[in-house]
């Protein structure tokens, strides 16, 4: 395909430019511009071509102050992420056609463009620029939630994202000062001399945005407080850009395997007891990132293919689940399990689409999650990583419990909160708006298409593969796992052992810096204020005493205001002159 724009024009620039122009148009105009922007950007991406791993197509190379910029590097790893980012941007435009605010529509497209630009960046400084644009644009999406809680969550989100950017920039500076290449490639974390500080800082930057354990709470804090449209936008880009960066820079780094396994496991417990279903999805997102991080740590071609494939399908079905809960939020005004139920009667299409997303994330055969997630577990098995394999299997069962069953069950079935027999019951809500249904239908179609015909996905993967998901062993193992998980859920519900849906606030590790940390900061502030008041009070008292003394000496009747005799004055003058002459002579 012949480029319709100069070859060094980044698809990201197209999206970001048109996204900035959207603020001058109404809802329909913004929707049309958004569709045009995504189509033009994707056509530009296709026209540039794609090279195999290790032999990328490079465009726009330039030298500035001895630093080499390569804003466009297209190989099969970068292109698969850029492709799914375009699809996510398209879903966002359609889903938010009626309900996205001007700020959400504009910054959402800029946000998508920054993720695409980061995925295509061939040098570290270009990556940093897009990394920061993604942080700044996405915080406006959080704030667009419109509540005081959204504002406060956005401020915390911004602080965390800025810390990630500072760590990345510091790592880049150290890397370049040590004589490293400006190319964004693989980093060596551990060397014979010990830990590489530049690589450690860059890994920290990636770890924050990929939600490593203890660094993850910004996601659960911010995403559920965004609007129905904003949460869908946020679910696609920041964390997946971090996954791409890890795959590019730290593939085969062993420490990522246990980190990824922990990431897959601990969110399961939080998700099971959480009442806010959008927060359940946020924990589920964290869980799914763990599969990708573990795969990157394994580092084989099959594992990297699995990470890329899982990122691709995850963006689709996670967006579908967030869209389903967003539609519920729009129609009902809440996404809390204690206030939902029975919605399948009045929102049947939303129910069906959400169930498709739930089946996909649970990796049921014939759905997209199955053809991607099984690559990661097989990669762990082939490398004889027994404990990692078991952890991934456990996490797969946990995903079914909290996202595959809990989300659709408590939102659309369970207790009917809108039954006419309920005294004071709210009227049944309407089906989701048409643009939201179109976006959900498109995402659901892709989930099923990839599940039925996986070669569509496998042809995009970084490495050539002859992997076949639908072997008897894979299907039988996964179905056994899923059936036992369903049985466990049924028994827990039947015997009332399943965690009850209650109105509560569940504490995560951010409690340590949001409560004791806040109190420590306030105590330090109060201590500094007290010391300052004491010091300033002493200064003021000394000043008052000095002025009083001067007043006594120079005021009426004071020593300095008396009439002096000529002789005394002459003697005083001679004394002062003597002191001055002695001082001059001494120098």
Automatic annotation (TrEMBL):
Q: Which domain of life is it from?
A: Bacteria
Family annotation (Pfam families): Proton_antipo_M
A single GO CC term for this protein reads:
plasma membrane
Swiss-Prot/TrEMBL GO biological process terms: ATP synthesis coupled electron transport
Q: What GO molecular function annotations does the UniProt record carry, in alphabetical order? A: NADH dehydrogenase (ubiquinone) activity; oxidoreductase activity
Q: What membrane topology term does the record carry?
A: Multi-pass membrane protein
List where the protein spans the membrane.
6-25, 32-50, 77-97, 109-127, 158-178, 226-243, 255-277, 289-309, 315-334, 346-367, 435-456, 476-495, 566-586
Primary localization:
membrane
Keywords, in A-Z order = Cell membrane, Membrane, Oxidoreductase, Transmembrane, Transmembrane helix
Per the database record, which ranges form the NADH:quinone oxidoreductase/Mrp antiporter transmembrane domain?
121-396
InterPro entries cross-referenced by the UniProt entry: ComplexI-like_HydComp (IPR052175), NADH_UbQ_OxRdtase (IPR003918), ND/Mrp_TM (IPR001750)
Location relative to the cell: Cell membrane; Membrane
Q: What is this protein called?
A: Na(+)/H(+) antiporter subunit D
